[in-house]
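Final report, Chapter 2: Outcomes

The project's central promise was a pipeline that accepts a single protein chain and returns its three-dimensional structure in a standardized token representation, suitable for archiving and comparison. That pipeline is now operational. To close this chapter, we reproduce one record exactly as it appears in the project archive, with the input sequence first and the structure output second.
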Amino acid sequence: MSDFYLMTRAAYAKLSTPLAKAALRVGLTPDMVTIIGTAGSVLGALTLFPIGQLWWGAVVVWFFVLADMLDGAMARQRGGGTRFGAVLDATCDRISDGAVFCGLLWWAAFGLHSSSLMVATLICLVTSQVISYIKARAEASGLEGGGGLIERPERLVIVLVGAGVSDLPFFPLPVVLHIAMWLLAVASLVTVGQRVHAVRCSPGAADKIAPAGPPPAGDDQGSKNQ
């Protein structure tokens, strides 16, 4: 886990505690906040980015990302979260990240007609999902697969700052988005390599796994009838 992530979480924890208590008092649950934050991020990204409103898109997405982070503080106030809540939160993070890159990809393709930005955004879209999957799959196998150059907080900062600055209301700098996306694309590819290497070097990574057995009798016939 990066130092940036730890510092960001520590600072946000101080601000989020009173908000979490207030949200619980009005009857909200951590899962509800997760869903609301994700829905807001997806809606903002897929309505504002494709029409070139990058500044407002970045503002809206960042607001709902911070709101989504409130679920952890709420769970702590309730004495801890649930396993379902953790899975829901991770799933919604992937959806939110995908929406951000899809919105920017649409703008790159149909607004700017920039093949270079399209390639960078596609790399970011794919690697953002792969980076998370490597960690999840490794942990499910009892291996280490975290860390690396870029994690989700850094990824969001780079893409949202790049998008926002490129469309500043009074002094837009379009080149900033191109720089940010290529920087993120390269860093994300490095992170994929780092995580695969971490998994490969984990204790037990070379252990044999049992081969899959033959399907039960009747499965072939059953699959034909589906």
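Archive annotation: The two ends are 45 Å apart (CA to CA).
This record, like all others produced under the grant, will remain available to the consortium after the project formally closes.
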